[in-house]
Design brief:
single chain, mainly beta, Neuraminidase, eight-stranded mixed β-sheet, five-stranded antiparallel β-sheet, 1 helix
């Protein structure tokens, strides 16, 4: 892999709107918002060591973006993406050893024998001297099983364990309900994999006849996953009509879907609420009505010291940025700011700023926003 260079400007740069970033500081928000760029239905972002970013777009494009000068470079090598419905080129995360091996992990929805499913792939970041950029040697290392018909609840979020040895991957239940409780299926599960995509040895349910990749089960549409500073794994998922959840993920536990939920079916049919003694792990935080959560980040930065140790997530239907306070194994609602657009992703930047991606659907523009302290 060639050394990353912010000065290697390619001949094929895609123009970004010029001028200084627009800023706003509404009185009810403790941060000012700078509009950095606009994308076409962006889904996720990852910062490179030099401050540039990889940004995925729903239709299947990955872009190398430089926040300093606004340049966007297409990243070649991405497999064909089935982007119907909730399908997309989804998460993008750098390998724990990216500085030495240049490996990028990403997820996407694909069509194949039996229907559609989520896939996890890797490729080596490579930028030539003329600026052209690609992921080299792309290979799919894991596929959700089984593939099914439909275009919803792929999930596809990626997180690495703090020691860098394992990869945790979310596989939604594809709007099929029962697979979340099926021990043989990876649908509706949090999975623990080796870095090569194979099931990690010692997963908690493999001796009980479960698929050997499963870490926890009984999930719906898992659109955010992150480790906190003490190594606890947190996950958020969309409920049905109400019942969106923040969960503390522990090995081998059943989180209840579709047998328990604090929401109801879209047609009004009741679902038993989580209650003590029902055999299911209850959420630490839940919302009714729905906020439609998307993305999850654990904040460790110094730019907003009052928020250290918090979880941040976007809200789609709620058009919000949401903060959740963590206290050990407990969590509680803290803040919810109206952003005026569907928020798909939130990440902490290298300097501790919060970076937010709008969804680009239903009136949302798909902008990249940088949040810094007000005043």
């Amino acid at each position: 892999m060639r050394k990353l260079s912010a000065t290697a400007l390619p001949l094929i740069l895609l123009a970004c709107s010029g001028g200084a970033p627009a800023e706003s500081q509404p009185a009810d928000k403790p941060f000012k918002t700078s509009v950095i760029a606009d994308f076409d239905s962006p889904w996720a972002m990852a910062f490179l060591p030099d401050g540039r970013m990889l940004v995925t777009e729903k239709a299947g494009e990955m872009l190398l973006f430089d926040p300093k000068n606004g340049t966007k470079i297409p990243v070649a090598g991405i497999p064909k993406v089935d982007s119907e419905g909730q399908g997309a080129l989804m998460d993008v995360v750098l390998a724990p050893q990216f500085a030495s091996n240049g490996i990028v992990y990403f997820s996407f929805s694909e069509a194949g024998a039996g229907g559609k499913g989520v896939a996890l792939a890797t490729g080596k970041f490579d930028q030539a001297s003329d600026g052209t950029t690609k992921l080299d040697g792309v290979k799919v290392i894991f596929r959700g099983d089984p593939k099914v018909e439909g275009n919803g609840h792929y999930s596809g979020r990626i997180a690495f364990s703090p020691d860098g040895r394992y990869l945790f991957f979310t596989n939604g239940e594809r709007q099929k309900f029962d697979p979340a409780q099926d021990p043989k299926s990876t649908l509706g599960k949090v999975l623990r994999l080796n870095l090569d995509g194979t099931p990690a040895r010692g997963n908690p349910l493999s001796s009980k006849g479960f698929n050997p990749a499963i870490w926890s089960y009984g999930h719906r549409n898992l659109l955010g996953i992150a480790f906190d500073g003490d190594g606890r794994l947190w996950e958020q998922e969309m409920g049905p009509e109400g019942g969106d959840e923040i969960n503390l993920i522990k090995p081998g536990l059943n989180y209840g879907w579709p047998k328990a939920s604090n929401g109801t079916h879209y047609d009004g049919r009741d679902i038993p609420d989580h209650k003590t003694g029902d055999g299911f792990e209850a959420p630490k935080v839940w919302w009714n009505p729905s906020i439609s959560p998307a993305g999850l980040a654990y904040y460790t930065g110094a730019m907003f010291p009052q928020w250290k140790g918090s979880l941040f997530l976007g809200g789609l239907s709620s058009q919000a940025l949401v903060r959740v306070k963590i206290n050990g194994e407990s969590a509680s609602k803290a803040d919810q700011w109206d952003m005026g657009a569907r928020i798909r992703e939130v990440e902490q930047g290298p300097d501790g700023a919060l970076w937010v991606l709008e969804d680009g659907a239903k009136g949302s523009q798909g902008r990249l926003l940088k949040l810094t302290p007000a005043g």
